[in-house]
Amino acid sequence: MASQDSLPKTADSAKLADARGIEPPPHHTLLSICKSLAAGGIAGGVSRTAVAPLERLKILLQVQNRDNIKYNGTIQGLKYIWRTEGFKGMFKGNGTNCARIVPNSAVKFLSYEEASRGILWLYRQQTGNEATQLNPLMRLGAGACAGIIAMSATYPMDMVRGRLTVQTEASPHQYRGIFHALSTVFREEGPRALYKGWLPSVIGVIPYVGLNFSVYESLKDWLIRSNPLGIAKDSELSVITRLACGAAAGTVGQTVAYPLDVIRRRMQMVGWKDAASVVAGDGKSKAEYAGMVDAFRKTVQHEGFGALYKGLVPNSVKVVPSIAIAFVSYEMAKDMLGVEFRISD
Question: What's the domain count of the chain?
């Protein structure tokens, strides 16, 4: 983290610091915060665009009906999309995805930095040990807070992005874009529909984002401190090593949280009158869920436990580079923008 000796303090926090000998959480300038937000947004846009075809395939596999299976694997699915929809089909929904992920990533990274500083300050305040540094559990908590804040702030965009991604040229009803989808859902299904699947999303984001940050930062910290393979030079890790840390973090996080992501997608389709024709290929049946638990029960009951991991393979292929690229792009963007503070500094 940035040195706390040079950071400004409010009057109350300064008095507390003087009384207990503990520095309060730092307060950053508006320019520094904007730079950090920009770095997070850049990281999100770059990482998601790089894996956009796999992102679309994952969602299609998640909501694909067992009675109308068109593809089972990653390569087969990508070939089918390319054959039926061409190059544009590979990136369908990416504009909406980036419109959501750019602010989501910006808020997430900034929230993580501020949450980690706040948690560390509170721990030092309680223990009186100013030398204490962030541990994996603290990072997990900070990541969970960041994930909840970012997910809640951008959830309606995620909801309509899922529908835009699922619809095809054969869909009876077509959303023309992000704002048309938002206004249509709001008008036809009500404002609450924009937050369908929010609960499993929030529950899922706690281990997902929490583990992403915790594993990534803890791995980096361990490699720098112990340097087991002689890969750390001057307390810095190479881009390749940081990408590997990000890949490990993404693999752990998405494996734990994936079933909740499947349930979230299915709940988002409820209430969409054309969902059956898009997902199942017919207009006869459409799953209705009373809530998250009911969605879990019906999915397992009708399709088996394995249905909770539909699309896991393309998601794994997507998440490994996506998370890795996001973390490294974020740190590189902050270096280029000259941001004064960074995670793990």
Answer: 1
56 and 319 in contact (C-beta within 8 Å)? no
Residue partners of 305: CB distance under 8 A and separation at least 6: none
Check which CATH number belongs to the domain holding 296 and give it.
1.50.40.10
Do 27 and 51 contact (CB within 8 A), yes or no? Answer: no
Q: What is the DSSP letter of 201?
A: H
User: In this structure, is residue 171 part of a structural domain?
Assistant: yes
Q: How far is CA 200 from the centre of its chain?
A: 14
91, 53 in Cβ contact below 8 A?
A: yes
pLDDT tens for 95-154 read 877 888 899 999 999 999 999 989 999 999 988 888 888 999 999 999 999 999 999 988
Nearest to 5 by CA among 21, 197, 19: 21
Identity of residue 102:
V
Q: φ, ψ for residue 3 (rounded to 5)? A: -60, 130
Cα atoms in the 13 Å half-sphere on the side-chain side of 237: 26
Can you say how many angstroms the Cα of residue 138 is from the centroid of all Cα atoms in its chain? 19
Q: Where are the beta strands (DSSP E) in 199-343?
A: none
Burial 207-221 (b: 16+ CB within 10 A, else e): bbbbbbbbbbbbbbb
Q: Is residue 3 part of a domain?
A: no
Supply 24's token pair.
């309060």
> Dihedral of the CA atoms 30, 35, 36, 41 (nearest 10)?
130
User: Which of 16, 23, 1, 225 lies closest to 112 in space, CA to CA?
Assistant: 1
Cβ-based neighbours of 336, under 8 Å, separated by 6 or more? none
71: region left, alpha or beta (phi > 0 left; psi from -120 to 50 alpha): beta
Residue pLDDT, tens place only, 142-179: 999 999 999 998 888 888 877 777 776 766 667 887 88
Residue 100 lies in a domain: yes
Q: Which residue bears the tokens 């940081």?
A: 242
